[in-house]
Amino acid sequence: MQQQETASGAPVIATCVAAWLLPGMGHLMLRRRWRGVLFMLVVTVMFALGILMDGELFRLERAQPLTFLAGLAEMGVGLLFFVVRWVSPLAGDVRSVTYEYGYTFCIVAGLLNMLIVLDAYDIATGRKK
Predict the structure, then answer these.
(1) Partners of 11 in beta bridges
(2) Span 47-81, pLDDT tens digits
(3) Separation between Cα atoms, residue 31 and residue 114, nearest integer Å
(4) What is the per-residue DSSP string for 15-70?
(5) What are the residues facing 5 on neighbouring strands?
(6) Which tens digit of pLDDT belongs to each residue from 25-35?
(7) By CB distance 3.0 to 4.6 Å, which of 4, 65, 69, 109 could disulfide with 46?
(8) What share of the chain is helix, strand, coil (3-state, %, to 5)?
(9) Would you list the domain boundaries of the chain?
(10) How far, in Å, CA of 115 to CA of 67, rounded?
């Protein structure tokens, strides 16, 4: 089976994985510099604000479906999630006034990056200009 390549020569799968690991990187690989930089800034700032607002990084607990889905959504930011989880495993303070805003920002940042990965895929496969 031959792997499909983008117009820039990078394999589509590698572009999508890069887009997930570092928000905006897929677009940078596809030579969409401004879009890539903008996505990188927006997702990173949104996730950072969520953490600064005492947002929680949810664990993947199968016994609690909503917590599981929230954790998957937050993992959408890629390496940022795992770095913050490693540096501060007990992030999030339920007693904080901004706790709910914080974890909402983290979840939305992850979901937004998932949409950005799909956009990079569409561009890489030629479905979108």
Answers:
(1) 5
(2) 999 999 988 888 888 999 998 999 999 999 999 99
(3) 19
(4) HHHHHHHSTTHHHHHTT-HHHHHHHHHHHHHHHHHHHHTT-------TTSHHHHHH
(5) 11
(6) 999 999 999 99
(7) 109
(8) 65, 0, 35
(9) 12-124
(10) 21
